[in-house]
Predict the 3D structure of the following.
Amino acid sequence: MTVAILLGAPGAGKGTQAPLLAASLGVPVLASGDLLRGEVASGSDIGREVDAIMRSGELVPDALMARLFLARLDRSDAAAGAILDGFPRTRPQAEALDHALAASGRRVDRALLIEVPIEDLIGRFAGRLICKAGGHVYNEWFKPPRAWGVCDVDGSELVHRADDAEATVRARMEQQLGPLHDVADYYRGQGILIPVDGTRSIDEVAASLLAAVRAPPAPAR
Ligand code: AP5
Ligand code: MG
């Protein structure tokens, strides 16, 4: 059983790497951003609330986010492990996650921090495309789809994300890097944080993440 968290700044490659790692380990990906975008697409009350927050570049309030995400974590497909992309994003979320996992005899095994300097990230957003059906991630320059505008995996349409506009990207960086450092410190304190160089090719980063997950477990805490 493996519960691994992917941490990293906006654009670091969490959504690109999560499905690769999940396929290698045979566990599902639970992605907070995809959950939220699903709510927005459904037109639910929660969707209307979080749409404005996401477009502003701020984080969704902890209580709402924890309720949504921990309900997803409770579903049976995650019983044997999962790759978490985008949750936790704050220290209170990390504590809520530990609490929820402990209640079902699980724990976070690894927190993998994908490190990319901000100046390298900015160029990734303008070219990013995601698919409407499954949130699969592409890039016009760095990871183009096989057929223009169509997802390789499920054939759905590729679109730009509403929060990838330049001003929102700047706000996301300003709002979210502080909490990211808090969460990284939290897992560093538990002895389970593993930093990985995210500036290399997608395949090289994937190989490092898999090796990090398969490294001998940290001593009991
Ligand atoms: P979320 O969807 O999680 O966005 P994010 O954290 O800002 O991260 P991104 O999805 O932008 O980047 P990524 O690291 O997944 O990079 P990707 O693989 O796409 O969250 C969206 C919003 O929801 C937040 O702003 C917040 O409002 C809210 N939210 C979500 N979770 C929350 C929480 N827990 N609490 C509160 N609020 C929350 O890669 C980026 C691009 O780079 C792609 O085009 C990709 O093809 C390319 N790329 C990837 N790797 C490489 C590489 N090695 N070389 C070159 N290009 C690469
Ligand atoms: Mg993502």
User: Anything to note?
Assistant: The mean pLDDT is 95. The helical segments are 14-25, 32-42, 45-56, 62-73, 91-103, 118-125, 166-189, 202-214.
